[in-house]
Amino acid sequence: MNNSLATLLPGLIVLSSMVPGAMIFLVREESHLLRTVLNLFGAVLKLLLVGVMVWAVWQGNELESRLVIAPGLELVLHADALSVLFATLSTVLWLITTIYAIGYLEHSPNRSRFFGFFSLCVSATVGIALAGNLLTFVIFYEILTLATYPLVAHRGTPEATRGAKIYLAYTLTGGLLLLVGAVWLRTLTGPVDFVEGGVLSGMPPELHGQLIAIFALLLAGLGVKAAIVPLHGWLPQSMVAPAPVSSLLHAVAVVKAGAFGIVRVVYDVYGVTFASELGLLAVLSVLASVTIVYGSLMAMTQDGLKTRLAYSTVSQVSYIALGASLLGPVATIGGLVHLVHQGIMKITLFFCAGNYAETLGVHKVSQMDGVGRRMPWTTLAFTVGALGMIGIPPIAGFVSKWYLGLGAVEAEQHWVLLILAASTMLNAGYFLPILYRAWFRPLPEAWPKEHVFDTRFETMGALLWPPVITAVLCLVAGLLAAAPFSPLEWAQLIAKREYGL
Amino acid sequence: MTHWLLLATWVWPLLLALPASGLRLRGDWSNRETAAAPARHVPWVALGALPALAAAALLPLGTELALPWLFLGTFMGLDETSRMYLAFTSLVWLAAGAYAAFGERGSSANRGRFDALFLSAMAGNLWLIVGQDLFSFYVGFAMMGIASYGLVIHDGTVPALRAGKVYLVMALLGEVALFAGLVLLTSDTGTTRPSPVDLTDLSPLTIGLLLAGLGVKAGMVPLHLWLPLAHPAAPVAASAVLSGTMIKVALLGWIRFLPVGAVALTDWGEALTLIGLATMALAVPVGLVQRDPKTILAYSSIAKMGLLMLVLGLALAQPDLAPLGVAGVVVYAAQHGLAKGGLFLGVGMRKHAAARGSITQALILAALVFLALALAGAPLTSGAAAKYALKPAVEGARWAWISTAVAIASVATTLLMARFIWVISRTEPHDEPAWVWPVAAWSVLIALVALFPFAVGEPESWLSNADTVGVGVGIAAVVALFAAQRPHVLAPLIGLVPPGDLLALIGPLLAALQQMGRHLLDDLGLLWRHLDATATALFMRLFGSAGGDSERGLRQWPVAGALWVGIAAALLILLLAQQPLVAG
Lengths: 501, 584
Prior knowledge:
The complex is a heterodimer. By secondary structure, chain A is mainly α. Chain A has a domain at 294-501. In chain A, 73% of the residues lie in helices and 3% in strands. Chain A has helices at 3-26, 32-58, 81-104, 111-130, 134-152, 158-189, 208-225, 234-237, 243-252, 254-270, 272-277, 280-300, 305-325, 329-360, 371-374, 376-390, 396-410, 415-440, 461-479, 487-498; strands spanning 63-70, 73-79. Chain A has a two-stranded antiparallel sheet. In chain A, helix 2 runs antiparallel to helix 3 and helix 17 runs antiparallel to helix 18. Chain B has 23 helices and 2 strands. The longest helix of chain B has 42 residues, at 502-543. Chain B is an all-alpha fold. In chain B, strand 1 and strand 2 form a beta hairpin. In chain B, strands 1-2 form a two-stranded antiparallel sheet. Chain B has helices spanning 5-21, 32-36, 50-58, 80-102, 108-130, 134-152, 158-189, 204-218, 227-233, 236-244, 249-257, 266-288, 293-317, 322-352, 359-376, 382-395, 401-425, 436-456, 466-485, 487-490, 502-543, 550-555, 557-577; strands at residues 64-67, 74-77. Classes of the chains: A mainly alpha, B mainly alpha. At the A-B interface, helix 6, helix 12, helix 16, helix 17 and helix 18 of A face helix 2, helix 6, helix 7, helix 21 and helix 23 of B.
């Protein structure tokens, strides 16, 4: 691979959405076409660049962009197998979500502001994915926080403002803890890049106490975004955001950034073996397990469809942390592959929830009787996503569950099987009643607030196709899990490199 | 190229599911009537099992198809066991499919949903038979289990919904146990396509989970509670496959994933034998006092599964019995699948296919008597041949009394079938038009049951088993005469035990638990909402209001934000100024 391209590519990938994003702010509100072109241009360009990057990393190339901000302080963007996994996920889903958002916000005000921040948000996410050291990571992490705030508050209603403020309070506090942790760590180690296998295992034993404290700070900072109990309070509150934002928050950007950060810290800063020696993994696995069960229990009590999905996210994202907390390559694969699988399944579910709200005015589970008759394709997509979440094969979720279960047994942590079993039952407990209502109950006399679109489809095309496409992705990721370039294969590549196999 | 037929066995019904469902992409959604219902019901469902039948009939033994890219690595193949399973499974699905396509009535939207679920369950059932790896087994098992829930609650009646709930909870528990069992098995053996030799070192936990997980499907007492509720509640076509083929996959799973014949698992084997015996001992008496013909058939299925568990337990305990024992179990499962599928379909025919007193009704009743005799194992029927196949294992058992127990069970089965004939002959038919195709498919199934002993069985088996069936028929005749003379003496017995037997005992306990759980969840939700509201109110008091004094000004976002930036900047300066303690 060309040398200059290798040093430019990571930077270009971040800029490919940041520049069109900045330009969108300047677009006049009524210039629908120009904004759409800019949006899609950025999304498609980024997808192409990421495609090149996937190929390069597969070949074993090193891609790195460095920018010296101050002496000893460098902005590093580095593409390794793990960053490619997250960057590809967010790029693909960003393209689909952009199309969905264009349809969803067809007639609402302030679209330029919305799409501007939307693009910034994805730039920050990809920046997080490609960050090559902890400080770069923290910078993009903060940009992400600030870029998503206006999106959550977009509607401008009192609830939206309130939800957004709560979101900001949580995430800024988390960000601060993360920053303190990162700085503290740097005072111990000096400038250190992320390295597969970790960098801290050579630290003298007298510093282990400090390292544990730093881990606690980092975990608290990242745990806010990853919605680990008890730091998850913002997530249900931010459900006031428009559906495309919820999809993005849950599946692609914010929650994932937290989970991804935990994976980075465990594998590429501490090193999984060293973290296990310090006893950090045991704490993480207990926290993740509590979150998995608690999130599912709370989801069962919710009638609001989006809040139910939000608690489901709380539960499901901790699978990733759980995978990171079990020592052994198999569990690593399970956690990493769930990063992708949870993303595509959850985004499907949120798209569908958005479709129900936008087309029929259905916001609550109790209003969903017979919705499968009125919107069969949306409901089919929802069914695939929901069954995948429960872990029914051959949908993607089963693959994660299998590797987590096997990884737990290989790590001699048999109790995790009980957590997985409980989670399966609870997921079935809050998803299957929805499916039952949608497919088996009779239609109501009238829907709460039905929009009639000028189309022969069940809803507007831009709303219908994104969930159908992501549902197909869920099936393909499961059915072709063992095929080349599947998320599973990629997770295996990462695990191989992390464990030096 | 013909080996791709193995893939087609389950892909074909899956592909058919979409057109069969009748879902359309475009429609007039403003009109509730046309939005809800596809224009016309197309009977795709009748064709679902054709490739499977072709594969069973045409492919030579030992055909293999490895697709390492599919799912988590799929390996399909045809050995003795899977071919036998494929044959009887596809036949029962075909006959039931013809029934579903032309016999089930209702709105076209509902029928489309039924057909799509029926085909998905079929695909799962066939995938787990042709797939030789444990992923294929689990995928098929799960697809079949989830889709069947939709089949059970199809009618939407209160009993159907209750049956569906019991079924779903137990099926999911079974799947979770099976999942854990297979994970442990993979970890124990290091392979996902274990041969019996790989399985010799399974941990007790693994074996227990596999037995319990599949035991739910098999109707193993006390995990059978869903079966007598779900099989009668489902529409006839679904009952036929639920009882005919789906419960049999549990045996297939045990044969594949337990070290049958490789090592003597004396304790587990004897436990399975005793559980099988207990299953029979519970199912027959409870079945005898049922009113609904389909419930009687469901209990008969449980009893038969008990017999097969018993034999499999013997093979597990004594490896020398395994080759003949396993072969016998498979033949018996095939025979029972065909006969029981036929009996369930026959109940539907009896109820709807022709008017009372017509020749057709008389023929249907005669066919049902024949099937009942076949199930009981009368001489010259498939039952006698299948029973004969179990003989070596039963007679070779270390426990000599097993043969006696099996003989008693055989008499009891005959009584159960006599009770079924008694009930079904008194069932009032409600004539419906257009039954030609289901009756034709059913006739083919019956012909196959009739030919079964001459195709599969040993000639010396044809006249066997006359004694037990004779005794059974004799007792049944005496009881029938008595019941006809003095109906009031036996009447109180009928309905003494409700379907789902033990569920009635633990029902109140479960209800109380459920109530408690719901309260707990509600309280949890309430508590959380309360805490949430308090915290939010506090938060808004701190940050939400735009106050005038400097105290409040400090708390506003611009100020808070500036503070934050300040702290961050201070940290950065610290960072840049300080020398690292340890060089990276």
